[in-house]
Amino acid sequence: MGKNKFILVVIMIGVLAAGWITTIRNATGAESIKQQNRLVSQADTYMGKELYVRAIPLYKEALSYATVNNSKIEENLLNAYLKSGNTDEYIKLASKRITAKTASEDEYIAVADKDIAYGDSAQGISVLKEGAQRLESDRLKQYCDKKMSVYSVKTTTYEKIVPSGSNLIMAAWNGNKWNYIGEDGRIKFDGEYDKATSFGDAGYAVVNVGGSYYTINDEGAKYGIDENNVSDVFTVSGNHVLACKDGKYSYYNYDFECVASGHQYEQITSNACGVAAVKQDGKWGIITDSGKKVTDFIYEDVAVNSLGSAFAGNVAMFKQDGRWYMIGTDGKRISDNSFAGAKAPESGQYIAVASDDGKWGFVNSECERVIDFQYSDAKSFSEHFAAISKTSGQWSYINESNNVITNELYEEAEPFHAGIAQAKFAGTAALIKLNYYED
């Protein structure tokens, strides 16, 4: 009996030991990992033979064991989906991994592209922003920037196209005469002119034919005739024509009658932000819309933007004592910071300025540097983008994060207004149309 009892105890100990081993193996996932490895090894063999439809179910079965290896196995399965062309299943798994915060850059891009392609740009942009933040990825940040700024380039037969505030009707030079075209690049109405201004906000422009000026409406019909014999027209600003007679610029109505005889200047800019820059005796000053003096004529020069204004976003760039300063509508300096060069603001966004060594960067409306001096030339931001040049005669566009958002290089490039920018591409004038997504 003693011997039998001993054998029974040994058996019981063996059973318990086996149970403990099983429990330990189950607790550590060792058995599951073993089974996973077996399935993955077989699936990998099928992948090597391009038998993707046989590899996929094995990877999926391996994932049912839910071990620490699952994330890597999911990557294998994603690759199998891609190789087999099963995009839907790839997107489904990638979306799951995004939720679990285990997705890669490529997975974020694939899911975002799917959302955007299906018309849900908001969701797609959100996915990219989340991925850029989680992975601290410059690649995703730049990709997100590009998806937020989808553009197209329309080439024309013109040599030059002039910006306007609305860009609905633009003056275009064909090498011999001026026409007016729409955003599609087609002529808006019959008429060829020796000179042509942009249309003002009220829907009128000034043209010249055979030395005579007249105003036209936005259908091309004559509206007013110059019987006052002005010698030059700068632009249309508000309800006024900025024209020159006897060497002095002033404000005229659409019939070319001077409406501000007490204000005669050597040069004048369009009114914006309630003020305008005017030049007298070789120096520039600032006046209000009503003609009240804001500053004396103390500035050597002023930067003028693509719409003919000095001011935008309530600031302008004036030159004094050989340096460029940012000036507010009250005539006071925004900051003591000065620059070797400056472009006029196009909006309330970043302004292009130059360092003493000739490199261009950008400052904000408080005159604080936001993009370092690094470009050979630049124009101020508008509608979140700016034209920059790294090499003479080669322009592209950057966003406020200083990332290039255009694929082409342009010979010339103007700022964006109303979603359109004028450029020169492949030797001819082109229109860049932008669709910018904002949260």
Walk me through the structure.
The chain has helices spanning 2-28, 30-48, 52-63, 70-84, 87-99, 105-117, 121-135, 138-148, and strands spanning 149-155, 160-161, 170-173, 178-181, 195-196, 204-209, 212-217, 222-225, 232-237, 240-245, 248-252, 267-268, 275-280, 283-288, 301-302, 315-320, 323-328, 341-342, 351-354, 360-363, 369-375, 377-378, 385-391, 394-399, 412-413, 420-425, 428-436. The protein is of the alpha+beta class. The strands form eight sheets. Strands 1-27-26-25 form a four-stranded antiparallel β-sheet. Strands 5-6-7-8 form a four-stranded antiparallel β-sheet, with no helix packed on it. The protein is elongated and about 95 Å long. The N and C termini lie far apart (85 Å).
SSE order and pairing:
Blueprint: H1 2-28, H2 30-48, H3 52-63, H4 70-84, H5 87-99, H6 105-117, H7 121-135, H8 138-148, E1 149-155, E2 160-161, E3 170-173, E4 178-181, E5 195-196, E6 204-209, E7 212-217, E8 222-225, E9 232-237, E10 240-245, E11 248-252, E12 267-268, E13 275-280, E14 283-288, E15 301-302, E16 315-320, E17 323-328, E18 341-342, E19 351-354, E20 360-363, E21 369-375, E22 377-378, E23 385-391, E24 394-399, E25 412-413, E26 420-425, E27 428-436
Antiparallel strand pairs: 1-27, 2-3, 3-4, 5-6, 6-7, 7-8, 9-10, 10-11, 12-13, 13-14, 15-16, 16-17, 18-19, 19-20, 20-21, 22-23, 23-24, 25-26, 26-27
Tell me the radius of gyration.
Answer: 34 Å
Indicate the low-confidence ranges by residue numbers.
15-28
The CA-CA distance between the termini, in Å, is 85 Å
Number of strands: 27
Quickly give the structural class.
alpha+beta
Overall mean pLDDT: 92
The 3D shape can be described as: elongated
Q: What is the number of helices?
A: 8
Task: Going across the biggest sheet, name each strand in turn.
Answer: 1-27-26-25
Strand proportion: 25-35%
Biggest pleated-sheet summary: 4 strands, antiparallel
Helical content band? 25-40%
